[in-house]
Write a structure and sequence with these properties.
123 residues; alpha+beta; four-stranded antiparallel β-sheet; two-stranded antiparallel ribbon; 8 strands
């Protein structure tokens, strides 16, 4: 199979393996919480995913700024048709796709409907 590579002694399809996406050891930040297309490996590339959460006190006003702080680019509505997630719990926000979700574009100000916000970014 032309999509397979030997990774740690195993033959792996690098076109859809979240731990070896596109090449051995390229791990996708995949948060399978009922949304398999957020952060998973598709055609050898990691899809956009929600990044760690931040608070309003961090001073970032939109997802463009937040993603840039991780060296990534915001992905408008690319995480199950959403740009950001919000909740009142850091532990829950860090666990993946939770709380409310919003299809606002990356440059729109965060509406701060919860204490913690995570944005959809490239990886």
């Amino acid at each position: 199979n032309p999509n397979e590579m030997m990774c740690d002694g195993q033959c792996i399809d690098v076109m859809e393996n979240n731990d070896n996406c596109g090449s051995c050891g390229n791990v996708c930040n995949w948060k399978d919480k009922g949304f398999p297309k957020i952060g998973s490996c598709v055609d050898g590339d990691c899809l956009p995913t929600f990044y760690p959460c931040f608070t309003q006190d961090d001073g970032l006003v939109n997802c463009d700024e937040m993603c840039a702080s991780f060296g990534e680019t915001c992905a408008d509505n690319a995480c199950d048709n959403n740009t950001h997630v919000y909740t009142n719990s850091m532990a829950i926000c860090s666990s993946g796709v939770v709380g409310g979700q919003s299809p606002l574009d990356c440059g729109s100000p965060i509406p701060w409907l919860g204490d913690w916000v995570g944005c959809c970014c490239t990886q």
